Amino acid sequence: MNNTDKLHKVFHHIFARYSDGLYYYVLKLTGNEDTARDIVQECFLRLWENIETVDTHADLLPLLITYIKNLLTDDFRKTERRRQFLGRLENELSDSVTPPEAEQQLILRDRQRQLSQSLALMPGKRQQVFKLVRQEGLSYKETAIQLNISVADVKKQMRLSMQVLRKIMSLFV
Alpha carbon 108 to chain centroid distance? Predict the structure, then answer.
């Protein structure tokens, strides 16, 4: 067995012995499974990178805990910088770009009015089909039964309705 094979074997033994415990330790500290998994994986990556210089016969738990603490500190710093950046970005956007809630409500009401006007331009049967399917939430089959038409006719009417509505609504954007 060559030296690389021996190192692989030792590393796998260390991983099997400590990985679960370290994972639960980090999970308890972070409360996030993905973060815990990433930090433990990075911890063992650091161990592998230094495996030739580490005394594998000694207790490795203190070394692994040191790796974990350093990685947690790095993760905390990154998270804090990201949070600060997002806070600054949110402040900048709220000052300049985001319309007030009242304006958003006006836009929504205007779009609803446009939709109602567009529906009024459609033939009666198409209006009925659209209202039953889109506004009342009936299935195509339920709509076909209620209007005494075929499911294929419901599909056709919906397709035509959507084509017309897309064209009309695109004019208002």
Answer: 26
Q: How many CB atoms lie within 10 A of CB 22?
A: 20
> Cα–Cα distance between 173 and 167 in angstroms, integer?
11
Alpha carbon distance 51, 11 (integer Å): 8
Question: Is residue 104 a contact partner of residue 111, using CB atoms and an 8 Å limit?
Answer: no
CA atoms within 13 A on the CB side of 20: 3
C-beta separation of 18 from 60 below 8 A: yes
User: Can you tell me the distance from the alpha carbon of 18 to that of 43, in angstroms, rounded to the nearest whole number?
Assistant: 11
Predicted structure pTM score: 0.50
pLDDT in tens, 27-49: 999 888 999 999 999 999 999 99
Locate tokens 């779009």: which residue?
Answer: 111
Backbone phi, psi, residue 153, to 5°: -65, -40
Q: What distance in Å separates the CA atoms of residue 36 and residue 119, rounded to the nearest whole number?
A: 53
